[in-house]
Amino acid sequence: RKEVEQDPGPFNVPEGATVAFNCTYSNSASQSFFWYRQDCRKEPKLLMSVYSSGNEDGRFTAQLNRASQYISLLIRDSKLSDSATYLCVVNEAADAGKSTFGDGTTLTVKP
Amino acid sequence: GAVVSQHPSRVICKSGTSVKIECRSLDFQATTMFWYRQFPKQSLMLMATSNEGSKATYEQGVEKDKFLINHASLTLSTLTVTSAHPEDSSFYICSARDGDRGVYSNQPQHFGDGTRLSIL
Question: Which comes out higher in pLDDT, residue B102 or B44?
Answer without folding.
Answer: B44
